[in-house]
Specification:
By secondary structure, the protein is α+β, with helices and mostly antiparallel strands. The chain folds into three domains: 113 residues, Translation, Eukaryotic Peptide Chain Release Factor Subunit 1, Chain A (2-Layer Sandwich), CATH 3.30.960; 134 residues, eRF1 domain 2 (Nucleotidyltransferase, domain 5), CATH 3.30.420.60; 107 residues, 60s Ribosomal Protein L30, Chain: A, CATH 3.30.1330. Helix content is 38%, strand content 24%. It has eleven helices and 16 strands. The strands form four sheets. It has a five-stranded mixed β-sheet with strand order 7-6-5-8-9, sandwiched between helices.
Length: 381
């Protein structure tokens, strides 16, 4: 089966089709505080108290409590997103970064998907390479996950790693010998990086480490790999080096790639809206109509602009309706926030979802979409 456009949602699409009753939890999961046990206990108590207040059963509360147990050893900040459907955990995801919104602990007819999209809207595959003159460390990550998916290390020759400080002919010969060892070590590291790029097709290669090792490594990478390199001018490999510098740089580069992707799609949206019969629409009414026909390829949303709007969530195709008479032949699950209803319907029709600030959308309508086919063409046909 093809990967869903929003990878973070791929694993729950089948569950969404089944319906049922849902519990959504979104909370800070960081443990790097002065009192990690106390903080974790307070968070669990807050989540469980809120769910108990809306009538969640003791059995389901026990499942939730186990699901949000501490995350010892995982560097913060991190967040946790949990979904329960009909008394079964269907998603328990720890994502990098602090929560992008208030704590959430709710029960309802549909899951709250917005926190999952805000936690990491796009899954970006990337490599982190920390190079030194005696080899290097390579880790493959997905932006929606905290731990690396693949880790490899190269350990080259370490004799004569430091250049000889003497003089004369012996000095020059030793310097040359040392440089050749460095080059050999970086050639081995480059082979690992190139292989992982070919196997996993990352969008980024983050490179840090010893300055000379970085230079030698870049020279030995395949041209396709070099085009992906974002270089951090810091040596993060030695024991005791700050991880914060590298993590900050990684976050900046992931944000850059996601922003470039979003801007390219927004440019395409503007072009389609600007031409007669273009394959794009904007406004809640137009997008509800398009989503109901599985016509939307990319859905752009500003949740803040839709905060006061509601729609009907349906238990089968067409998944969403603006009024009860539009629900047939599906059943109505309930009245829900418009943003959540549109996100769910888009996910169920294999559309991508992009969260964007309102000023970037036409007429500040709060919602727009790139279409798989033009509505005008469909009418004309």
């Amino acid at each position: 089966m093809a990967q869903h456009p929003n990878a973070a949602l791929a694993d729950i699409v089948d569950e969404l089709r089944k319906g049922g009753s849902w519990i959504t939890v979104y909370t800070d999961a960081s443990m790097d505080t002065s009192d990690p046990r106390g903080v974790a206990l307070a968070r669990r108590r807050s989540v469980l108290d809120r769910l108990r207040a809306v009538g969640v059963s003791a059995e389901q509360l026990s499942l939730i409590e186990d699901a949000i147990e501490g995350t010892d050893g995982v560097p913060g900040p991190i967040s946790r997103y949990v979904l329960l459907r009909d008394g079964r955990i269907v998603c328990n995801l720890v994502t990098p970064g602090a929560p992008n919104g208030p704590e959430l602990a709710e029960a309802g007819p549909i899951p709250q998907l917005l926190p999952l999209l805000t936690a990491r809207p796009d899954e970006i595959v990337y490599l982190v390479v920390e190079a030194s003159r005696d080899g290097g460390d390579v880790s493959l990550y997905r932006s929606s996950q905290v731990a690396p998916e693949v880790t490899e290390q190269t350990q080259g020759r370490t004799d004569a790693i430091k250049k000889f400080q003497g003089g004369g002919w012996a000095h020059l010969r030793f310097q040359h010998h040392t440089e050749e060892i460095w080059k050999q070590n970086e050639t081995e590291l480059a082979a690992v990086v190139d292989r992982l790029v070919q196997e996993h097709r990352p969008r980024l290669v983050i490179l840090s480490g010893d300055v000379r090792a970085r230079q030698l490594l870049i020279d030995r990478l395949a041209s396709a790999t070099r085009e992906l390199v974002a270089e951090l001018n810091a040596n993060t490999r030695p024991e005791g080096a700050s991880e914060e510098t590298l993590q900050t740089f990684v976050d900046e580069q992931l944000d850059r790639v996601a922003r470039e992707d979003r801007d390219a799609e927004l440019d395409r949206l503007r072009q389609e809206l600007g031409r007669d019969g273009g394959a794009a629409e904007h406004g809640v009414g137009s997008l509800v109509h398009a989503v109901r026909q599985a016509q939307v390829e990319v859905l752009f949303l500003d949740p803040a602009a839709l905060a006061e709007r509601t729609l009907l969530a349906l238990d089968a195709e067409p998944w969403v309706a603006a009024a009860p008479e539009e629900a047939t032949p599906a059943g109505i699950l309930g009245t829900v926030p418009a943003a959540e209803a549109l996100i769910r319907a888009a996910v169920l029709t294999d559309a991508s979802v992009r969260l964007v600030p309102g000023p970037l959308l036409p007429d500040s309508s709060g919602v727009a979409g790139l279409l798989r086919w033009s509505s005008a063409a469909a009418i004309g046909g």
